Amino acid sequence: MNRRRMLAGLLSLPLVEPAARWAHASETGLHAGRRAGASRNVIALIRSSATVSRYAGEVIENLDILSLTGDALTVTHPGVIVRNCRIVHAGGHGIHAVGAKGVRLESIEVEHRGAGLTGEGTNIDRNNIALEGCPDAVITRIKAAKGAANIYLEACERSVLSWLELHDARGPLPRGQNLQLNKCANSTIEDFSAENGPSSWTEDNVSVFHSDSCTIRRGLVSYNNSPSGDGVMLEGSADCLVEDVDAYMQGNGAFAAVPSDERESGGCIFRRCRTAYSYNAPRDGREAPSSNGLSFYTRVSPGRSPHAIIECSYFALANPRNLIWQTQALAKDAELNARAFKPRPALRLAFHWNA
């Protein structure tokens, strides 16, 4: 197949959105996008091939990047700002930043077109956004779909991620997350939706791995077909806060805080977290949840502060008798009550590109 025909085929692939029953598009979501700084002005994008940063503090903006091989946008300088860009990639990461302290990614739509229409991805190095060694990163107003992971940060301490619309994580292992922090202590994730569907190949919707003192708040994690993944997983991460997050249609678990090998766990708080409409059977060609439909998976390391479950609720679970693993890992009795609720609406960001 020649490059022209290959390019036409890639551009014709549809963006697979979750089905309407779990895609809660609403005026709330649209207004949220506007509050996050969405502009009504049409932005004229400039078509571009793969691009690299050139100097510290550079502003890369208003690009429509297509890359069939390799990374679409590479950032290796500190303080670079990338904004108002649309990125389609097939043979590498969408955005790959390495050693770029203080990088800022703002108002970006990025899609991996090499994953196929459904199922497990072919390569772990096909993330939509991949940052390595970029402390103090700011990532805001991002729409991303079909990445091995949609956003993956490693060794990016004190990063702030907000206003994220994430869809259809594809893996393969160890990827499969809508969003993962790895060794990113003191980071914040807020105002987000992390949605999957039958076309996905998931692990955790949101994973906080070996990253102490992180905050995850005001979010929706929707649909997970992994036998081992959780909605929000705090793995080997101590003293984290998960607040005002809804986990919808999860299988193996909604929320978790556990040790990881040599990394301890303790002192994590789940406040006003809710889970509903879980499942406990094989799904989308994958095995049944290994936890038998657990909701909260909590374990604490010796000598560490216990975890806390405060003002949390559940509704319409596949296994309502399997709510908490190791209640002795909690500071006191869990505040976890059966209560009907409507999950928070998914975020829908509006970008005003010229085409």
Describe the structure.
This protein is mainly beta and 355 residues long. It has a single domain (3-338), classed as Pectate Lyase C-like. The chain contains two helices and 26 strands. The protein has helices at 3-12, 27-35, and strands at residues 46-48, 51-52, 59-61, 63-67, 73-75, 81-89, 95-98, 104-112, 129-132, 138-145, 151-154, 160-167, 179-182, 188-195, 206-209, 215-222, 232-235, 241-248, 255-258, 269-271, 274-276, 296-298, 308-310, 312-315, 324-325, 336-338. The strands form two sheets. It has a 15-stranded parallel β-sheet that branches. Mean pLDDT is 90; it is low at 1-39.
What would you say about this model in short?
By secondary structure, the protein is mainly beta. Helices cover 5% and strands 35% of the residues.
Reconstruct the topology from this structure.
Layout: H1 3-12, H2 27-35, E1 46-48, E2 51-52, E3 59-61, E4 63-67, E5 73-75, E6 81-89, E7 95-98, E8 104-112, E9 129-132, E10 138-145, E11 151-154, E12 160-167, E13 179-182, E14 188-195, E15 206-209, E16 215-222, E17 232-235, E18 241-248, E19 255-258, E20 269-271, E21 274-276, E22 296-298, E23 308-310, E24 312-315, E25 324-325, E26 336-338
Parallel strand pairs: 1-4, 2-5, 3-6, 4-6, 5-7, 6-8, 7-9, 8-10, 9-11, 10-12, 11-13, 12-14, 13-15, 14-16, 15-17, 16-18, 17-19, 18-20, 18-21, 19-22, 20-23, 21-24, 22-25, 24-26
